[in-house]
# Entry
Amino acid sequence: MQTILILDEKNYTEDMAVFERFVVRALIEKDGLYAMQQGKHGEYKIPGGGMDEGETIVEALMREVQEETGLVIIPETMKELGEIMEVRRDIFDENIKYIAHSMHFACEVEPEMVETALTESEKEKGFQLAWADIDTIIETNERVMTEKWQFRDVEFLKWYKDYLKKEK
# Structure
């Protein structure tokens, strides 16, 4: 998968232990709107999350999207878009270098939905499925940005807008 962007905070040392995480994210478009998790402060998050041990990329993406949005991905429609790599000191243990590989895919979904299975953190943040256009997502997240993931998602969506222009 092509690397779109490396977000490196350079706040670690090379002798630190490394924790590496692999994450899948789905960009689901219908009629010019994109499926997002929207929080209680209006922020938008691209659906997806960490891969469990032994899971394939397809299994992880299907599980994460169902848990977070209730949408059911059609596996054969998955198309690789690119990876954003985040490198920084771990927020939970300052002695660990954290590397996250966020792999993004364009996907289509079935017309029927299933029940979500939000984490406690997602429930506390008020996340729910919302459909919005790319410009609204970017503008909203830039206005209410408080989390590292918001910056990552904004940078990905800016890249994706350029990608779409080139595809035409």
User: Anything to note?
Assistant: The chain has one domain: 3-167. The CA atoms of residues 114 and 147 lie 28 Å apart. The chain is about 30% helix and 35% strand. Strands lie at 3-8, 17-30, 33-38, 44-45, 48-50, 79-89, 96-107, 128-132.
